[in-house]
Amino acid sequence: MSNHITASVEFYFKGEKHSASIELDMDQHMHANGELPDLYPLLATAMGLGAYSYEYEMMLAETIMFSDAKGLIADFVSEGALDLAAFNDVWSESIIIEKLQDIAKQHLSIDDIEQQTDLKNALLEAYRLGKESR
Q1: 77-78 and 81-82: which strand pairing?
Q2: Enclosing H/E stretch for 53
Q3: Which of 99, 73, 94 is nearest to 85 (CA)?
Q4: Is residue 88 in a domain?
Q5: What is the DSSP string of 68-124?
């Protein structure tokens, strides 16, 4: 699985257009932090803006737009908006299913857990039950 997306912001300050785009490897951010980092500082760095500048404040008033989504995340971008909460849920479950696939292969010799829907659901339920009981 490879999830990439471009985050962009554009604004005007003193009649001058400022814009920046950064490409994000969502898998890297999700594995490292479990969430997307604050994008405004990253975009400001891409533009060479300091965090204590008027330009930075103007940028904060603008909405970050998302485009060029690749992978699972593409299903969660609509008209430049990213439904990050929904992506987080689906991404987290896909990671769990990858781990369950490894368990099914090792212990049950099942190569594709997606074809064994009842088994997949049972393993997911057992995982959730175990997580709740902590």
Answers
A1: antiparallel
A2: none
A3: 73
A4: no
A5: EEESGGGGGEETTEE-HHHHHHHHHHHHHHHHHHHHHHHHH--S-GGG-HHHHHHHH
Nearest one of 11, 9, 32 to 21, comparing CA atoms: 9
**What tokens does 21 get?**
């785009």
Q: Is residue 55 part of a domain?
A: yes
Over residues 62-75, the pLDDT tens digits come to: 999 999 999 999 99
Residue 64 phi/psi, 5° resolution?
Answer: -75, 135
Residue 12 phi, psi (nearest 5): -115, 140
Structural domains in the chain (count): 2
98-129 residue pLDDT tens: 899 999 999 999 999 999 899 999 999 998 88
**Does 105 reside within a domain?**
yes
Write down the pTM of the prediction.
0.77
Instruction: Establish if 127 belongs to a structural domain.
Output: yes
Contact assessment for residue 24 and residue 4, using Cβ atoms and an 8 Å cutoff: yes
* Tokens representing residue 82 in the block: 């990213």
What's the longest Cα–Cα distance across the chain?
66
* Domain limits for position 16: 4-82
